[in-house]
Hints:
The chain is of the alpha/beta class and 246 residues long. Helix content is 37%, strand content 17%.
Amino acid sequence: MTHGSLFSGRGGFDIGAEAVGIETLWTCEIDEFLHHKLRRIIPNAQHYRDIKFVKNLPQVDIISAGFPCQDISVANQNNRKGIKGHRSGLWSEVARITDESKPKYLVLENSPELLKSGFEYVLRDLSSIGYDAEWDCWRAADFGYPHNRRRLYIIAYPCSLGFRRGVLQPPGAFELLYQWTPTEAYLRVSAGRAEGFRNTTTIQRDNEFPYFKNEISAFGNAVMPVIAEHLFRCILRDYEFNLINN
C-alpha cells in the first residue's frame, strides 16, 4: 500500500508507515524547518508546502493528517474557536483533498477536545464525501511510554467499499514496545526515559544545539511513530481481511 501525509510535522505518520512496509509518496508541511527535515527523512517522496494550494496529488491508498488543534486544545482555552477557527478550520482542506483523491483509508489525529468542539462537522464532512469513520482516544502510556497526554485517532474509509467495522484495535502496548526497544525491559525503559525528562541541564543550554527550539517545538506537536505504526497495522489487517472476503 502507499501513503501520503498532510500536516506532516516531523514525519511521525511517515515513519510509522515505513515501519510496516508502506511507502510514503508525498508529504505536505508548511513549516520551513520541518519541510526540509522531511526532505532528509523521506528523500524519494514529493514534498509540498501549503495545503491550500495543493491539488492533483499522486494517488495513494492511505492519507494521514494531524491537522492543527490550536483552536480546539485546552491549552488555548481562552481563545478557542473550535473547528471553524483559523488554524483548526484547515480541516476543510483535508476533506477537500480526501474527496479529490478518494483514498481507501484516511487517518486523522487531533486533541480529544475535538469531540466537544466541532467533531460533528468532521463527521458531517466525511459523510458528505462518502466516508464512514471509527475513533478512539489513546495515550503514549497505552503503548508503554511515560506520557499521559490523550490524543484522538480516527480512521475513515469509503462507505461504498463495504468495509467491516472494527478497524481500530486496542493497542498491543508490550508487543510494540518490545519491537521498538527489544533489548530493554519495560520498567527499565520507562524509568530511564522519565528520569531523562527530569534532567533539564542541557535543555537550558540551547545555544549548543543547532535548531534546538525548532526541534523541541516539533516534538511537542508530533504524532508518536509507535502509535502511527499501530494504526497502519490496523489498516493492513482490515485491508487484507477485505481482500480475502470480498
